[in-house]
Each structure stands twice: as C-alpha cells, then as structure tokens.
Specification:
heterotrimer, A mainly alpha, B alpha/beta, C alpha/beta, A: mainly alpha, 2 strands, B: alpha/beta, ABC transporter involved in vitamin B12 uptake, BtuC, Rossmann fold, 2 domains, 6-stranded mixed β-sheet, 4-stranded antiparallel β-sheet, 24 helices, 12 strands
C-alpha cells in the first residue's frame, strides 16, 4: 500500500474510532451539562461520578452476579446501566447532605449566584471521593473487558483500494448503548412532567416557584440524574479502558471541553461536543505522541474559552 | 509587623529543638505551604478571582530549579531567583489568557493549566528529576547537612512574603484589589483600571509560589509532575488559605500550621493501611469550612470577638445643622458643563435611549425622572461610561468623552454613586473613602485629607474611624456619597440615593446634597421619590420609553400633560382634562 | 378571601412595606396603584412567600400563609403573574402554560382550561409550539396570564402587566383581564403604575406610596380624587 493510502486508512480508522468513542464521551458530557444547565453549578466532582460508575459496574459484574447471569458478552453493558442506579442514589445523598446548602433558591438572587462556595465545595467533594476510592478500592487498575473488546468486524477492502477498517465490536456496542441512553435522557427531559419542571426551574427559578414547582427538588433530580448519566458512561468506558480511583481527573477536562464546545447551557450541544472531542482525540494520535493527546484537548479547551466561550452550538446561560 | 517577627522567632526556636529528621522535614514543608497560601491569597484572596490552578506556578518553580541544576549545574541559590522570575512571567502570560473570562470560565481555565503542564512534562521525559548530590560544595548548592537550615531559608521567604503582603494590604495596591473584588464596576467608577492591578497581583503571586516550588524541590531532592502539578497541590494552596481565612494575612499561615502537619501525620501513620487518607481529610476540611465558616476559621473567630465591639458604639445622632457651610448660595454660572447630543443606545434590537438631547448647566441640580423602564439607569450608565452609545456624543467641559472608559470618565471629573453599596466591612469609613482619591492624588497623606474633607461634608465626621460593619443604612449611603465626592469631581451623578429612606433621613440627605451644590459641584440625580425631587431639582428631564418627553422647571414639567400621561396613563389624563 | 393585616417588610434596614392593610373579597377586582418604589412588587412577593414578612399576617381563606413555603402557596388557588412576564424562555408556549397546572385538580381539568386560554388568546394557539423566549412582549404577557389561569385560581394577582408594552397591546391585555374577571368570576388583584387603566375596571383600590398606604376607596371615590396626581408627581 502506498503511503497516502495508509494515511487515508489511518484517518478513516481514527474517524470511526473518534465517533464511536465520542458517543460515549457525549453521554458523559450530557450528565455534566444537565447539572450545569439546571443548577448553574460547575461540578468539579463529575469525574468522580465517572469513577464511581466504573467501580459500581465492575461490582455488579463481578460480585453481584451479573456476569454469572448474563455472561461476559452482555453482562458488562447491563452492569454499566445498573451502575447508574447506584450513583443516582449516591447523588441524592450528596445533594441532601451537602449541595443543597450552597445552591437553589437561597443563592438565586445573591451576588455571584454563590459560585465560589459551589466550586470549592465540589472541589472538596472530588478530593474526598477520589481519595476515598483509593482507600476503599486500592490503586490496582481494573477493567471489565468483554471478549468483544478484542474482536472487530472487518470492513473492506473499500472502494477498490486495499483499505481495511477494523470496527472494534466492544466499543461499537458501547457507543450504541450510549446513544440509546442519551436518547432516553433527552426524551425524559423534553417529554416527561418532571423533565419539564426541571427545565422550567433552570430557566427561571423564581417564576417556577410562583407556579408551585419546588426548585430544590428539581435541582436534586438534576444532580442525581446528571451524576448517574456520567456514571453509565463510565461503566461503558470500563469495558475497554483500565480504571483506578484517580481516573476522574483524566476525564474531567474532556468533559468540560465537550460541554463548553456544545455551549454551556445546552444538553444536546454537550453530546455533540463530546463527539467532537472524541474525534479530536483520535485524530490527534495521527500527529501527536500518545502522552500529548490530552494536551491537544487542553489547547482546544483554552481556545474555546478565549475565542468562543458560548461554544459552537451556544445557548445563552443568563437567567431570565 | 511585630507579630510576624515574634511569631517567626518562636517558630524558629521551637523547630530548632527538633532532632528527628522526619519532623524537621515536616516543619520545613509547613512554611513552604504557608508561603504558597500567602502567595495565593495575594492574588485570589484580594482580587476575588479564585485560582484553582496555582499548582502551575508551583511546578514551574520546582522544575526551573531542578532542571537548571541538572542540566546547567546552576546552584539553587540562583535557581530560586530564576524560578521567581519565571513564576512572575508565567503569571503574566496566564493572566493575559484568562483575565477576560468571567466566573466559571476563569475557574475552569485556571484548572486546565497545571493539568496541561503535567502532561507536557510527562511527555518531555521529566517523570522524575532528581537533584544531584554535591558532596564537594554542599553549601554552594544549598544542600545542608543540617536539615534545620532549610527551615531557616523557608522562614526567610515566608517572612518576606508576609511583609510584602502587609505593605500591600494597606497600600493603594491592596486597596485597589479589594475594591475590584468588592465591586468591579464601582472601582472603575472610582478611577481604578482593574487590569494592571490584576497583572501585578498575579505576577507577585506567581513569583512567590514558584519560589516555594523551587525550595520544595531542593528540600525533597526530587520533582515529579504529579507531585507538583497535580490537583492536590492546587487544592492545598486553596485549602490552606480557605481554612485559615481568605483575604487575611494570618489566614494562610494558620491554615498551613494546622493542616500540613495533620496531613503529613495522617500520611505517615495511616498511609499504608489507608492510602489517600490525606486527600480525604483535606477534602472534608474544605467541605466543612465552606458549609460552616465560608470566610475561614480565623475571620470566623474574629467576627465573634468583634460583635461585642460594635454593640458598644453609641448611636449616631444626626445633627442636620452642624456641618452646613456658611457660604453664600452659589449661583449657576450659565455655562454648559455637559452636553448630550442625539445619543442613542441600543441593546440588540431594542432602543433603550433614542436621540436624547440635553444640557447640564454648571452649578445646577438636574433631576431625571420617568416611569419604570423609561431608560433612566441606562442614561446614567451611558453618562458613566458603562454603556457606549451607538450614535451621538457627550461633551464634558469641551472634551468629547463619548467613548471614554469608566475610569477615564472618573478621571475627567465625573463621579457617581451606586445603589448597591458594597463597602469593606472590616475597614474604617476613612479607608473606604480614600480609595477613590488614589488615582488623582499620588501623595497618600493628601489623599487622606481629601477623604476626610468629603466625610465631614456629608456629616459623617464623627464616624471617621468607625469600622463600616457598624454603620446604619443611611450612614452607608452618606459614606457612598463621600466616596464619590472625595476626588472633588465637577459633576456628580446620584443614583437613587434616597431610595427607601424614611422622611427624617430623606430630609437629612437632601440638606447634604444642597450643601454639596453650594461647594460648586453640579449634580444630576435620578430618583423615584417625586416629593423630594420637586423640592431639590432646579430643572427636570422626563424620560419615557427611552425618549425625552419633557424638560424644564419642576412646576411646568409636573403639569405637562405628556408627563401626566406617561406616569398615570392615558385614561387618567383623559379624565383629568374634564 | 385575602386579608393582608398590618404587614411590614424590612430588608437591609430599609422599610419596603409599612403596616399595610389590604383586603380582597371573593369575586372582587381590587387595584393597587402608586409610583415607582412604592412597594407594590414587594407586596406580591410577600403574598407569594418569596420575601419574608417582618411583622403582620397574610391570611387566605382563613389560613395564615406564614406556615407555608413559597412553592406550596400556588396550590391554594393564588396565581401570581409576575412583573416583567417571567416566562420560561426555552419551553414552548404550550409547555409554559402547562407548568401552571401543577395540582391534581388543575391537571385533570387541563384540556378544558387550555381551550379557555386559547379562546381568550387566539395568538397562543397559533404559536403553541414556539419557544416562549422568541415571542413579543405582548404575547409573553398573554403566556404569563395563561400560565396563571392554568392553575384554576380563585385569585389572580397581576404585577404591572402593561409594563414595557405598546399602548394598544396594553389595552388588549386589560380587556382580557376584565373578561377573565367577569366571565370566570375570578377575583383579581392588580398592581399597576398606570392609574387610569387600573382604576377603570376595579371595584376598589388602594394607593401605596413609599411603602405606606395613603388612600383607599371605591372606584368612584378614587377616580375623582385629585390627591392621586400629587402622590405620583409631588405637586
């Protein structure tokens, strides 16, 4: 094969992997964007929701018998979904115990809308959970690989050339699950009564109170659901990537970049932002050495902040 | 200052008595982190821009010293100086990229820098840079046999930072930063241009943090990306200060004294069985502080103590006669002080002001009235430079000030009061007022005299040195008035200064405003309280839906049918005609 | 039905409302007028529970509202149409209207209520799926009123519904408010700066100035009282 054909093959492969991985990142970003759009809180601990999702999924798979019940092909994906439930409950607990004291109606009309206490609280929370994880789970990396992780469908030769694409089965299925969950979430937000209440509370907390919506409850739902969504994404990532308690930090910048790209107020934009980041990450492997992949993302992050903070699919984040 | 010297001496003496090398190391780390905390505070505590990325400076400092020694054989004595400079430079660079960002975005950007640097240094192959042992000339390379000498070096750095902090706190620099933190808009209206101050703050902060990082590298003899650029470093800078008290001098030191040994002991004793216990405890400390004492432990203790002091103040009896200057009433000279021609302000598709034309005559009190939403506040924001008109001009004393920024407008001689007053609660009335004179009076003593004159003019003379936390609302309003007056402006814009005041308080403020006019200051005032306005204003301008619908003497304006219609509605004025 | 007894509201040392007494009986249309800064919006916020009362009581149908949190008061039958419309900009028109129907009773009756709102405001039927943030000021006011009606209120409180609207649109809004009052028998508490419009349709009115009640009376008494002009314009 000629050099240019190899290059094209690499590019196509990266594009494919980028979109696939991007869908999972997209789901991860949707969780964060939900929390931000409803509560206006920058949650530094979102990476830890991801981490907890990974461990919860592993726990379901290896210790709760999911592997035994559903086997190693389907088991991991079911575990990923179940991890969402665990983290949802955990999210409710965290909201009630800690977050509600620095968010909600009490800060809606105060100066700076309570940003700094929120940022600092979630930073502290992130430290506690990540290090607590280290304490409880140890530092040995784990994975929840399936036999599918190492098999791939072959596509090709394409267009009469020698180009072959390898579509990793595990990751492809994970991305399909991610898309399905994202669709489910979007339906919930746009069609259900609780979803509409959440959107109303996000748009205008004071008017929401006038019509009888309990803004604090909407915030609680948003936080728990947002954490759970990211956790499910974590469970999916765990099927192909090793994890340890400090993994949150690796992914937090990816999440924030994706949400920023999509426009910080927009949940749909966040999914697309995540896909874009997946693409950037994979395409950058073509030109950059492995360790600098994340640096490319930081650069994108800073560029967006500087030149287009409202993101590509921007939505105004100012309250009514 | 005395406290610093005494406390440092005590610390040095106590630590000199420690024989165990491990504890000696721990007590060296304490002042290093205290230094980081003080440095962090100089920037974030004073400016209000919380930096979650100071690890960037810490790491840069550590690597500068380490790499200079490993590759160029340069002694840390020089390496530290270099790291300070590099730290300052990085501060300016990072500031240049992030200062235009607000709130969330700023916090996120600051977070990204150390993480990016972590990846970069990892990739560059500097996973573990060890400082070589120099057995032949240890002192030249800052390698002390006696560990305690490191404590001395650390303390010297900390003391210099504290002294600088002390000098800054009371200086224009510190006060400008605090003013920016409290209310950036009001600071700009007082003539402060925020950007140079922020750069100076981050440069100093970056320099000291880098120094701390450099010493850290020398003491531990090894630098790894995660130990210096990691989240725990950024978090430690933040926690130590938050715990001890943001914006205070003693805060970071107290925080470091308590938390660092705690962290190290936890790590040492329980690190094997419970890895990560240090992070858990620090995180829990942050959460506890945020929820129960958000300003920090030291200010919390101090506020408990201070409450008693405030209760002991005797009530201020407002004597409306005592301060009135006995000069003859100033006559309006008939000259036009400010001319606003054809000004239009648009926000997107909406016209907030359209083709507004009026003059402000020297020596008069001009009232601006109009129903809710008429554009009065936009007019003030335009006069003050917060909002730039899309067309039209404003000429002040012959100078076209249409596109002047707010601080330049202040320097040209236009002052403004704000409705929401956010003073420095722990500082005296005099200190609060003097800030607005700094931009035009380089001599600090003269600045204080100007402030004092303004305070006495508004009748707060007896409250000159009172801490602001003890003032009543009307006293706060008067202080705000003094702040706007202190730089002796030619034109003063008063923004609803009477809002919500009771009738005797309103009387008092009206008398103060009249006496201000007597000193030759021209006044433009927005108010809702018509009863007061019609007595105070020489002329009035009525705005409705962004247009000037009437101008003239109060009696004429209030009987003008268009004005009646604007306020009371068409149906009322239609009936009233009958 | 609604009895505001001696209510005072202080914030930050300033008195926003001072010992105010206002009553709305079942089926009445009561107007509260007064110049800017008089405390009219604070009054509504105190009734809705968003602002705490320093002294006095707000009693609705015999029940002291101080025991109820803000979001719990909507289900009592009090609908608050806030100053500045305050629609939910990213929700569609029909979603906005539906957020008003939170109680079970309101949700059960929703189809009929929606039909009524559409009959009253045909433009909302036309723009049903449009995002409320893209509507004109007048249309947003219709949405805000419709949202209030969706809760099947006994008392409709409107805070300066004409603010920022062109005169013709404001007239239309006032007509609709009158229709709602006459056809549905819903009691109305209207706060307005524009005196003529407010007093024209009311049964009784109050005049607030700097947080104090300075006048009250029936429709005829107030329309003829020249003191109102003084209250607004000082002379």
């Amino acid at each position: 094969m000629s050099d240019s054909t190899i290059l094209i093959e690499n590019i196509l492969q990266s594009l494919y992997t980028g979109v696939i991985v991007g869908c999972i990142y997209g789901l991860m970003c949707v969780g964060l964007a939900l929390i931000f759009s409803v509560m206006r809180v920058i949650n530094f601990a979102q990476g830890e929701s991801l981490m907890l999702g990974m461990y919860a999924a592993f726990f379901c798979f290896a210790h709760l018998g999911i592997q035994a019940m559903f086997g190693s092909y389907v088991g991991p994906f079911i575990s990923a979904l179940l991890s969402g439930i665990f983290v949802f409950v955990f999210g409710i607990f965290i909201y009630e115990a800690l977050l509600k004291h620095v968010t909600g109606m009490r800060v809606v009309n105060t100066e700076g809308e309570g940003h700094y206490p929120q940022l600092t609280l979630t930073l502290g929370l992130s430290l506690v959970i990540a290090n607590g994880g280290l304490l409880l789970f140890g530092s040995a990396p784990l994975t929840m690989r399936t036999p599918l992780s190492s098999s791939a469908w072959e596509l090709g030769p394409l267009f009469g050339t020698d180009i072959m694409l390898f579509l990793n089965q595990g990751r492809t299925i994970a991305s399909v699950v991610a898309i399905a969950v994202a669709i489910g979430v979007s339906l919930f937000i746009s069609r259900s009564r609780m979803g509409t209440m959440m959107r109303a509370a996000a748009d205008n907390p004071q008017a929401a109170t006038y019509v009888g919506i309990h803004v604090g409850n909407s915030h609680r739902l948003a936080f728990a659901l947002g954490s759970a969504i990211t956790a499910v994404a974590g469970g999916l990532i765990a099927t192909y990537y090793p994890f340890q308690p400090y993994i949150g930090i690796e992914f937090v910048i990816i999440m924030y970049t994706g949400v920023l790209l999509g426009g910080m107020g927009s949940v749909y934009g966040a999914f697309l932002g995540g896909v874009t980041i997946g693409l950037v990450q994979q395409l950058s492997t073509l030109v950059l050495p492995h360790q600098l992949q994340n640096t490319a993302i930081f650069v994108v992050f800073l560029l967006i902040l500087l030149f287009r903070p409202q993101g590509l699919f921007g939505k105004s984040v100012d309250r009514v | 200052m005395a406290t610093i010297c005494v406390a440092s001496l005590i610390y040095l003496i106590l630590t000199w008595m420690i024989k165990d090398r491990y504890y000696q190391l721990m007590f060296t780390i304490v002042p290093i982190w205290a230094l980081v905390g003080v440095a962090w505070n100089i920037f974030s505590g004073y400016s209000g821009l919380l930096s979650f990325g100071h690890a960037a400076f810490f790491g840069i400092g550590a690597y500068t010293v380490a790499l200079l020694m490993v590759f160029f054989n340069i002694s840390p004595w020089f390496g530290l100086i270099a790291s300070g400079l590099v730290g300052a430079l990085s501060g300016v660079l990072i500031g240049w990229t992030t200062f235009r960002l607000r709130g969330h975005y700023f916090a996120l950007a600051m977070l990204a820098f150390p993480l990016a640097l972590l990846c970069i240094f990892d990739w560059l192959g500097f996973q573990e840079v060890t400082l070589p042992m120099k057995r032949e000339e240890p002192l030249l390379y800052m390698q002390f046999e006696d560990q305690r000498l490191y404590i001395v070096v650390a303390m010297v750095m900390l003391i210099s930072a504290l002294l600088i902090n002390l000098a800054l706190a009371k200086s224009r620099f510190g006060m400008a930063l605090l003013a920016i933190k409290q209310n950036e808009a009001a600071a700009m209206a007082s003539g402060i241009n925020p950007l140079p101050w922020k750069f100076a703050a981050i440069a100093i902060s970056g320099a000291f943090t880098a120094l701390a990082g450099g010493l850290y590298g020398v003491v531990l003899l090894i630098v790894t990306p995660s130990s210096v650029f990691g989240m725990l470093s950024s978090a430690q800078a933040l926690i130590v200060t938050l715990f001890g008290g943001i914006g205070t001098i003693a805060g970071p030191v107290i925080g470091a004294l308590v938390l660092i040994p705690l962290g190290e002991i936890l790590h040492a004793e329980l690190g094997d069985k419970l890895p990560g216990i240090q992070g858990v405890v620090f995180g829990a400390a942050i959460i506890t502080v945020v929820l129960s004492a958000p300003e920090g432990i030291w200010p919390w203790m101090r506020s408990k103590f201070q409450k008693k002091l405030v209760d002991e103040l005797p009530p201020l009896g407002l004597n409306t006669d005592s301060f009135l200057r006995s000069s003859a009433p100033a006559t309006a000279t008939g000259k036009v002080l400010m001319r606003v021609s054809d000004v239009t302000v648009r926000f997107g598709g909406l016209y907030a002001l359209k083709d507004v034309n009026f003059d402000v005559m020297e020596g008069e009190i001009l009232g601006i009235i109009g129903p809710n939403g008429a554009g009065k506040t936009t007019l003030f924001n335009m006069l003050n430079g917060f909002v730039v008109p899309v067309s039209g001009r404003k000429i002040f004393i012959g100078q076209d000030v249409t596109s002047f920024k707010t601080y330049d407008i202040c320097r040209a001689g236009i002052g403004r009061t704000f409705q929401i007053v956010r003073p420095f609660k722990q500082m005296s009335v005099l200190d609060n007022v003097v800030i607005s004179t700094f931009f035009m009076q380089p001599d600090t003593d003269k600045a204080y005299v100007m402030a004092q004159d303004a305070i006495e003019l508004v009748g707060l003379g007896s409250r000159l040195n009172t801490v602001v936390a003890g003032l009543t609302t009307v006293e706060l309003r008067l202080m705000e008035l003094a702040r706007a007056l202190a730089p002796a402006p030619r034109l003063l814009l008063l923004d609803e200064i009477l809002a919500g005041l009771g009738s005797s308080e309103t009387e008092h403020v009206l008398k103060v405003i009249e006496s201000i006019r007597q000193t030759g200051v021209t006044i433009v005032i927005i108010e809702h309280t018509m009863h007061a306005m019609v007595r105070l204003a020489d002329r009035m301008i009525v705005l409705d839906h962004g247009l000037v619908c009437a101008q003239g003497l109060p009696q004429d304006v209030t009987n003008n049918p268009l004005v009646i219609e604007a306020y009371l509605g068409k149906k009322w004025s239609a009936r009233a005609q009958h | 039905m609604l009895n505001i007894k001696g209510v005072s509201v202080y914030y930050e040392g300033l008195c926003a409302l001072n010992n105010v007494h206002i009553k709305v009986d079942s089926g009445e249309f009561v107007a509260v007028v007064g110049p800017n800064g008089a405390g009219k919006t604070t009054l509504f916020k105190a009734i809705s529970g968003v602002v705490p009362i320093t002294s006095g009581q707000v009693i609705y149908n015999g029940q002291d509202l101080s025991k109820l949190q803000a979001h719990e008061r909507a289900s009592l039958g009090i609908a608050h149409v806030p100053e500045g419309r305050q629609v939910f900009p990213s929700l569609s028109v029909v979603e906005n209207l539906q957020t008003g129907a939170q109680s079970k009773q309101a949700r059960d009756a929703w189809p009929q209520t929606l039909a009524f709102i559409h009959a009253l405001f045909p433009r909302l039927a036309e723009r049903s799926e449009q995002a409320a943030g893209t509507l004109s000021g007048g249309e947003q006011q219709m949405v805000a009123i419709g949202r209030g009606l969706a809760s099947m209120p006994q008392l409709l409180m409107l805070d300066e519904p004409s603010m920022g609207l062109a005169p013709a649109v404001a007239d239309l809004i006032f007509e609709c408010i009158q229709r709602i009052h006459k056809e549905q028998g819903i009691s109305v508490l209207l706060v307005e700066q524009r005196v003529g419009e407010a007093l024209e349709s009311c049964d009784r009115g109050y005049v607030l100035e700097s947080g104090h009640l300075v006048m009250s009376g029936t429709h005829q008494e107030l329309m003829q009282d020249s003191r109102i002009k003084k209250s607004y314009l000082g002379l």
